[in-house]
Amino acid sequence: MALDGIILYKCFERASLSLKENEKIINDLNVFPVPDGDTGSNMYRTLADALSREVCTVSAGECAQTLSSGMLRSARGNSGAILSQFFHGFARGLSGCGAADRADLARAIRHGTEAAYGAVMSPCEGTVLTLMSRTAETADKQTSDESDFFAGLFSAARSALCETREMLPVLKEANVVDAGGLGFLAILGGFCTEICPGFSLDLSEFATVSSREVFSAYESESFTFSNCVECFVIKSPEFSGEKKCSRLYGEISPLGDSIVFAETAEHLKLHIHTDSPETVFTLAAKYGTVAETKVEDMALQHTRLIAPETEAVSPSEKEYGFVFVSSGEGFEAVFSDLGADRIVSGGQTMNPSSGEILSAVDLTPAENVFVFPGNKNIILAARQAAELSGIRKVTVIPTLSLPQSIVARLAFDSELSPEENAEAMTLAAESIRTVSVTKAVRDAVVNGIRVECGEYIGLLEGDLVSTGATLSECLGAMEDIFSDVEFINLYYGAEVDYKTAKETAGIISSLAPDGETELISGGQPLYDYLISLE
Length: 534
Hints:
By secondary structure, the protein is α/β, with parallel strands linked by helices. Helices cover 46% and strands 19% of the residues.
């Protein structure tokens, strides 16, 4: 029985269900190399989200290719990134294949294994890579039909998984197998459940020992790098094709560890543990559009994993509380002065997850919590956090910029009800416009405006409205925007010194002769200036 697209898709569906059923078992084994989310959850979401997209099921090759593209985009964590790259190679091995027989599948698994090893900067045996390698070796030697073929792969992978316990000191000390390896075995088990008559998957034997005691030995203060960072990039035309972004691999290498670099002809997905997420995103932006990003605090993950039953939730001590998403020391100082209970690190290219925002809400000791996302790309995550909170009454004020968050907070009145305050703060945020000024990282044509790399560009509420070889030229092209403004707050970024910022304030004052300009250190990355207009 050869696997056509319909059968292959059913195999992936069953593999996804298998991951979901064993999610907790896999998560509890997550000890290598440092806390990096939940391995089982990351692998499950990587595959499940890809299956939620429209998939062609006519041929095996087309089915694998569509799922591969979806997995690259939905890949979560180190384990998800490696898994997506394995199936990228798997799809390449099935290219042009209508129905995959044993030889086709063996070739696909070999390509998948090679791609997975190639994606990891420092491949380490005793991990999921070992299971992939052992599976590929077994596949090349198999001569049975497809049902026995997958049963043989499962058996070989299971043996390899048991060996991981002795291959890595951290696993041996905890007396557990590799979490990512167990996830891969669950996927193979899903395939077997779909194809092999009488096969029954039971992974409970790997859940007999909890790893939390050893996991807690990783002190959060001793982590080499604090953030787990991911981004998905849609390549620019000049970088289209396989292995056209290898230079980026070298550029991000000094910035962290646990690097996974998954690349296809049109996209790439990065995973890295680093203290410099914004630098990673800036470097990635040179190769295309950074469409999706994620930054997670591994110390917070560590705390929740070793003591989930006592997850930090502050008791309510007051009626109102405030959570801001912010980027830049200056803005954070402003929000602190405005009574911020919690500040979540995030911004244009560093979107926090719903979980991070929810954690901040949980730690805010108030009955009613207002969340200010400060960016249109963060509003959805903030609203999801609000829906997840079962402790607080959470209201998201849909601010599109950090200056809007400031103006909105200033409109708060403790004498008003939560609903009245939400309306007042939303109206206040809508009363101002925000201009952002930065430099183009590549040539482009946007909204009919031609942009050259290195030019200054001006954006009004995120839409490109001006360019210029100099800052003065760029601002001058926005004269109509400044002409009727009464109050201007000029927030200068981390790379701008006070003298230069003061000169810029002079340029803006000349463009808005009837306006009052105030200069403030925002300290934001990437954008030289954020300018609020009222």
